[in-house]
Amino acid sequence: MKKRVVLVANSASMIDHFNRDNIRLLQEKGCDVTVAANFREGNSSTDEKIESFRRWLVEEDIDIVDLPIPRKPYQIGKAIRSTRLLADYMKEKPCVLMHCQTPFGGVCGRLAAKRFRKKQGMKVIYFAHGFHFFKGASPKNYMIYYPIERHYARITDLLLTSNDEDFRAAQKFPCKDVRFVPGVGVDTDKIHDITADRTALLNEQGIPKNAKLILVGAELIPRKNVETAIRAFARMKDRNTFLLICGKGEMQEELRQLSLLEGVSERVRFLGYRTDLTSIMHMVDCLLFTSRQEGLSVVMLSAMAAGLPVVASDIRGNRDLLDHETGRSYLLPVEDADAYADKLDALLASPEEMKRQGEANYRWIKERFDLSIVSSMMSEIYDGFLVKDQSL
Length: 392
Prior knowledge:
Layout: E1 4-11, H1 12-18, H2 20-28, E2 32-38, H3 47-59, E3 63-66, H4 76-92, E4 97-101, H5 103-120, E5 123-128, H6 139-152, E6 158-161, H7 164-170, E7 178-180, H8 188-192, H9 198-205, E8 212-217, H10 226-235, E9 241-246, H11 252-261, E10 268-272, H12 277-280, E11 286-289, H13 298-305, E12 310-313, H14 318-322, E13 331-332, H15 337-348, H16 351-368, H17 371-386
Parallel strand pairs: 1-2, 1-4, 2-3, 4-5, 5-6, 6-7, 8-9, 8-11, 9-10, 11-12, 12-13
Helix pairs in contact: 2-17, 4-5, 5-6, 10-15
């Protein structure tokens, strides 16, 4: 009988974007895999993309547990229903290992797993892709999320973190084991070697051939702080620039209005959710990333792997990525639109610096955050749990 492993997250898009390689690893180890997540709400990708992911899971003979996992702490009813549905599933189909992630995926998953850990020896891995409490977070975030994360660490056999600040915080939790994994990894060479047609993008968007392109890749929600990116763009002295915003979210119309108010709407393009984002990274001159909160950004990882220079907010996670050579000077105060504008003007005025910084970014990601490194670590972690005899 095959061992069954269940992957749990708030949203199906989280599993789709960040766990396909983990699914592959588990299948190669002879495991049956189950995906438990919310396929209907809270996804950062389109409905079509989620449906495509669902079809892929079915084709791979992977069980799907569609949970109403919430994204807000006050949606207690959804959390309770999700916990019950997941527990009922695991009672019918026992699992030897749970790999859960995201705050409420982690809570619902570990609550559901609690009795199976005691009775059946089931093990639990929790991957914290960025705690909601961090240096600079609001007191409210600390009051809500710190006690939750600390408490549920007791129902965790291994807690994984993706950045240095979270790793140091997690070491104080009552958890059996805490380890650092450098994010979800990116296929550095595959991204770096993409061939892209910049002219086609310029024609598609009605942009002059000699224009400089700044990319923003982010979900259009308050946490991603795209409004500061637009304000920074409006303050730039170089007017031969266009801002490409890739992503979808609740703030889209608000951000469109902001670009009008700032007088730059004619040079801002909202491209929506793009499945070809890594190709677009080869068509632009730099990435602007003004997020207020990150664990370890896959957008930044991918942009750096593509050889792009990056101007980013000085926050947890971003520091792990840009803390190399002169990269630290490209980390700026989160809300300081003037500082972003000045840095962008100076960068775009120097092709030599853009090239030097882009090459340094690529080397840094390849050496420390490549998918092969993460896959090797995750394979070893899974083996540590799966090779042991576990009676069901």
